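Sample intake — PepSY domain-containing protein
Collected from: Sphingomonas lacunae
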Amino acid sequence: MLVALACLILVPEAGLAQSRNRAPPPSGSSDEDDRPQPHQTRPLPDIVARVQSTPPYNGMDYIGVAGFETRSMIYVLRFLDGRQVVVVHVDARSGRIVGRAP
């Protein structure tokens, strides 16, 4: 019984000692790699600004977000080109334009 009690007391402390001695996970510097992790998305204002600075969208008026496709992590943005609404699909992780209609 005394041995079992000693194991209960010593085992958690051994785990704490191991976690204290473990090196912290490497953190990527934004200088080294500006790409987000596969599960991370870029902030929406950054994505909108990136699309607005890309021709032909730089000559269009930004209307707003039409949606977000969670499974594929795609923002659906709307722009106005004269009287025509243009829907632009943008990868939320990279900010890259992946589609357009019409």
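Post-analysis note: The helical segments are 2-21, 44-52.
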